[in-house]
């Protein structure tokens, strides 16, 4: 289990070519409970850190690095067992946001984000969830078609999208039922249908698929 930042120390890699921003992020993470903070200013340095130290509990990566693609680095780290990757970028372009999630990121934060937003995003990812900066989240909600395991689009009903959004918000079946005036059994049935459409019964994977497709924020 990944340590919760408010309870135990966690390790993190911060990749950004701007020293002041990198140091500010590192300081914020230490205030949240990060015990070990590695820093890198380029793709090459990040690869060296990853090779020397193995996967950290979390990585925060800039997309605009001087010696290569931050998206490629996300994909590379993901393949090496880094399961919690946060992208920190300047662009709020929907294509860039979707590309980051498709590459394997669990969160997309803007460099202009407030300290509170950064903290919320990091906590969500450390808890196994996904997160999109509130500024870009509305740009992703362009439809309700989600690719299944065979990449065939599957239609989610409006109610299923509502349920999935509340799952993404960290609510339990009971809490979802209370919010939508449904029984816990009905909520479970909705989740079962969503799972069949998306090809997974894992709540985190369902949320990640829906977020990457732009169905939920």
UniProtKB/TrEMBL annotation:
Query: Could you tell me the keywords of this UniProt record?
Result: DNA-binding, Phosphoprotein
The keyword Phosphoprotein is annotated on this UniProt entry: yes
Q: Which residues carry this modification: 4-aspartylphosphate?
A: 62
Q: Name one GO molecular function term.
A: DNA binding
Q: Which domain of life is it from?
A: Bacteria
* UniProt name for this protein: Response regulator transcription factor
The HTH luxR-type domain, residue ranges: 149-214
Tell me the ranges covered by the Response regulatory domain, including all copies.
11-126
InterPro entries attached here? CheY-like_superfamily, NreC/VraR/RcsB-like_REC, Sig_transdc_resp-reg_C-effctor, Sig_transdc_resp-reg_receiver, Tscrpt_reg_LuxR_C, WalR-like, WH-like_DNA-bd_sf
For this chain's UniProt record, which GO biological process terms are given? phosphorelay signal transduction system; regulation of DNA-templated transcription
Organism of origin is: Pseudonocardia bannensis
Tell me which Pfam families the record gives: GerE, Response_reg
- Does the record's keyword annotation contain Phosphoprotein? yes
């Amino acid at each position: 289990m990944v340590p919760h930042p408010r309870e135990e120390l966690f390790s993190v890699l911060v990749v950004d070519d701007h020293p002041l921003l990198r140091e500010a992020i590192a300081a914020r993470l230490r205030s949240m409970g990060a015990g070990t903070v590695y820093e890198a200013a380029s793709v090459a340095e990040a690869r060296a850190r990853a090779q020397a130290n193995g996967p950290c509990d979390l990585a925060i990566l800039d997309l605009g690095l001087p010696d290569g693609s931050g998206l490629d680095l996300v994909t590379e780290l993901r393949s090496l067992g880094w399961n919690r990757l946060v992208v920190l970028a300047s662009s709020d372009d929907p294509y860039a946001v979707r590309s980051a999630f498709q590459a394997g990121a669990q969160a997309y934060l803007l460099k202009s984000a407030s300290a509170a937003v950064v903290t919320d995003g990091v906590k969500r990812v450390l808890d196994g969830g996904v997160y999109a900066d509130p500024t870009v989240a509305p740009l992703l909600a362009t439809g309700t078609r989600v690719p299944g395991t065979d990449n065939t689009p599957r239609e989610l009903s409006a109610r299923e999208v509502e349920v999935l959004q509340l799952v993404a918000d960290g609510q339990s079946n009971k809490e979802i039922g209370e919010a939508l005036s449904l029984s816990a059994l009905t909520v479970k049935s909705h989740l079962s249908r969503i799972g069949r459409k998306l090809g997974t019964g894992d709540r985190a994977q369902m949320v990640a698929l829906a977020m990457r497709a732009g169905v939920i924020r």
